[in-house]
Design goal:
The protein is of the alpha/beta class. A 7-stranded mixed sheet has the order 14-15-16-13-12-17-18, with helices on both faces. The chain binds nicotinamide-adenine-dinucleotide (NAD). Pfam families: Aldedh.
Length: 492
Amino acid sequence: MHQFIDGRYREGRGDEAKRINPATGEPAETIRYATTDDVDDAVAAAKRAFATWSRCTPAERSDALLALAAELGRRAWDIAAVETTQTGKAIRLATEFDVPGTIDNVSFFAGAARQLQGLAAGEYGAGGTSMIRREPIGVIGSIAPWNYPFQMAGWKILPAIAAGNTIVLKPSELTPGTALIFAEAATAAGIPDGVINIVTGTGAVAGEHLVRHPDVAMTSFTGSTAVGRKIMALASETAKRVHLELGGKAPFVVFDDADVEAAAHGAVAGSIINAGQDCTAATRAYIQRPLFDAFTARVAELMDQVILGDPTDDATDLGSLISHAHRDKVAGFVDRARADGATILAGGHAPGGDLAAGAYYRPTLVVGAAQDSEIVQEEVFGPVLTALPFDTDDEALALANDTPYGLAACAWTNDLNRSLRASAEIQAGCVWINDHIPIVSEMPHGGYKASGFGKDMSAYSLEEYTNTKHVMLSRDKAPHKDWQNTVFRTRH
Ligand code: NAD
C-alpha cells in the first residue's frame, strides 16, 4: 500500500501503475495512485492533527523527534535496501550517505525545535512593549523528487513538524517506498496520527491538487525548475507561501595553483555521485589552461576505473539511473554534443554485457562543447561532466555564473584571495573551496537564481516554516494616548 494517511497505510483510489526495477528492467511493484479525494483526506487529517501538535511544547516535539531518530536507526538497513531497489543507486551511497545523513537531520531538528530565536522583547515605541512570536503556519503541502527520496522526505518533513506544523508529502510517484517507511516509523515512535501524511500520486493529479488546496497553508517543493515555475503559479491562486528548491548546474573551477590530483578526484566523485542525479553535482569544469590537459586526462582515467554494477553489491561504485527513459535522455545530450564536434574523453555510452538490461550509463567526460551549447547550459542529470579551459580569473568567474542556475559551485585553489573572491562572486547557495558535495545538517541548502529560494536543513529552514508575529502590549494607561492626537485630538 502506498498511501499513509492519519497514522495508517491504505490503498490509493486512483490509477494503477507498474514500476520497473531500473537496475534490471524487470517489473518491481504495482502502485495505486492517490486521487484528489485521497489528498483531501490527508489534508483533513493534517488539519485535525495541527490543533494539538502545534500546541505541544518544543520539548515534547523534540522528544518525539529523538524517538523517531532511534526508530529510523533501528530500521537503517531496511531503509537503505528499499532506497537502492527503488532508485537503482549503489547501496554504499544509501548506507553511508542517504540514511545516516537523514537520521542526523532528525537529531538536528530535535535540537533545533527548542532553539527558535527571535528579537528580545523590548520598548521600540513610546509606551509599548513588543515581542516576537514564531508560530507554526498550518498544514504544509510538500512535493519531492525521486533522486534522494529518503533524504528529501527528511528535508521536507523535519523543519515543518519541528516548528509545529503538520504535513502532507507527495513523494515522487517513482519512489514512494522510503517516505512511507519514514511516516510509519514516526507513528511507531509516537508522533501523533495525522502529523505526517504521505500521498503517492502523479504531479498532475495529486501534486496540483495539493498545491491548490485551500487548507494547505504553504507549499514546499523540491524538483525541476520547470515544475517549480508551474507550482509558483498554482500557489498564487490561494496566495500561499512557497518554498522552492529547484535544479542546478554546478560549476567546478580549477585555478592554476590547485592540486590537480585532488581536483581530479573531486571532479569524479562530485560528478558521478548518485549517477549524477544530484542537484548539486559537478557538471561544468572550467580549468585554467596550464592545467587543462593534465586535469582532463586524470579525470578520464579515474572515470574509466569506476565500477558499474548491481546496486545491491557493496563493491559497486555506480548503480543505474532512475529509469531507461531518463538514461536515454542523458545519452541524447552526449550524442548531440558529439555530433556537434565535442570530444568524449571517457564513457559516452551505456555498458553492454550483463548490465545491458538496466538503465546504466558510463561516467562521461565531454571536452570542447561550447559554453552556449545545451550540454553546458541545461541540467543533464546524469554522470556527465563537461570541461572547458579558461585564461583569467575574471573569465572563470564569468563562466561559472553563466547559466540560469545557482545552487552549488566549487573552486580549487590554494590562494587565499582567489578562494575569497570565488566564494563572494559565484552566485550560488553553496560554494565549496577545494571540495565538492559534503553537506551538514547545521548548514543551509538552497539556491540562487533559477535554482529557487528557500532553505532546507539548518535553523534557517526551521524559520521558513514559521510565521513571525509582532505582539505589542501597551503600557500607557491613559484613556487617550499621546500618539492618537495625530489622528484626532481630545477636546474634553
Ligand atoms: P520533477 O520536477 O519532474 O518532479 C518533482 C516532483 O514534482 C515529483 O513528485 C512530481 O510528481 C511532482 N510534479 C510534477 N509535475 C507537477 C505539477 N504540475 N504539480 C505538482 N507537482 C508536480 O523533478 P524530478 O525529475 O522528480 O527530480 C529531478 C529534479 O529535482 C532536478 O531538476 C533536480 O535538480 C531537482 N532537485 C533539486 C534539489 C534541490 O535541493 N534544489 C534536490 C533534489 C532534486
